[in-house]
Amino acid sequence: MTAEAAQPQQPLLRVRDLKIRIQMDNGVMNAVDGVDFEIRRGRTLGLVGESGCGKSLTSRALIGINPKECETSGTIAYTSSQEPEAKGEPLNLLALNPNGRKIRSIRGRKIAMIFQEPMTAFSPMYTIGNQIMEAILIHRTRNKKEAKRIALEMLGKVGISDQEKRFDQYPHEFSGGMRQRAMISMALSCNPELLIADEPTTALDVTIQAQVLELMKRLQREFGMAILLVTHDLGVIAEMCDEVAVMYLGKIVEQAPMKDIFRNPKHPYTKGLLRSMPRLGGSKAKRLESIEGSVPIPVNMPPMCGFYDRCKDRIEGVCNARSVPATRISDSHTVRCFLYSEQPGGQQR
Ligand SMILES: Nc1ncnc2c1ncn2[C@@H]1O[C@H](COP(=O)(O)OP(=O)(O)OP(=O)(O)O)[C@@H](O)[C@H]1O
Ligand SMILES: [Mg+2]
Known about the structure:
By secondary structure, this protein is α/β, with parallel strands linked by helices. The chain is about 30% helix and about 20% strand. The protein contains eleven helices and twelve strands.
């Protein structure tokens, strides 16, 4: 098979055994501990889990922007359809120099990222328009007039009216929702193959949140980009995603197409997250459950299930005795839980 013929089957990004270790005063923290996932072209993968489970570290690792103390290993195989010289061969992004030319030509251009707090993406010193234009000048064209035209067009696409006036305003002159839109327009101005969105709507009120999600979906249809959507909100996942990876304490504990996660969840943690999700039109009498306990800090963790202490279905002597392998429920559904494991001590259900 030729490289071109093989390419459509290749996911855009294939992450294997991603580990991020951070040396702490009291030991080593395995903040991301052997994560595997794939992002397919034009599709949306949701990465969901409670605060502190390693979602942001994982997503920032994809473009090499974690701080120096994060010791990262594994492979991030990126198969671009925009890289003729690569001829469909994957490029391991983790093997690239994080400050080198190659990753800088990918970061922002082919893989763009938007953050929870748009103030961090914009400098207060320059106008919004200048900052969007600068990204375009670095990656797309050297012609300033053309760059300004693209920037104005992008501001229009994200629903910002009066673009000429807005172009010359500073970030503090924009409302939160407008800054979020401006950040999306900056991220999309270079027509990336992958958009990483880390809690893109958490800071926004509910109506604006719905508008921004709708906007991302529309732009995805228009530009055909893939999205990695990081959130702790299952409502956002249901609205946006094709596939879902549920993360807990540095590991992906369940991974499946979105519908299977909602209709046929397996991991006790996924089930807990679903029970704690508010539902429109749900019975008023039924109180929302929260998952008892909190996410522990994974410093010097023994090999065991990280959810053990909080799990109602735990099997003593099994779940706290060794690390949990991934079990395949179907071709597209995997779970990391001894209740489904064929390993000795595990149960098959
Ligand atoms: N530079 C760092 N130094 C030390 N610890 C860190 C560093 N960055 C992240 N951590 C820790 O690693 C763990 C995972 O962090 P991460 O930011 O990826 O979580 P998250 O899932 O994105 O959480 P949230 O939903 O709150 O954004 C947390 O316990 C966090 O405190
Ligand atoms: Mg985060």
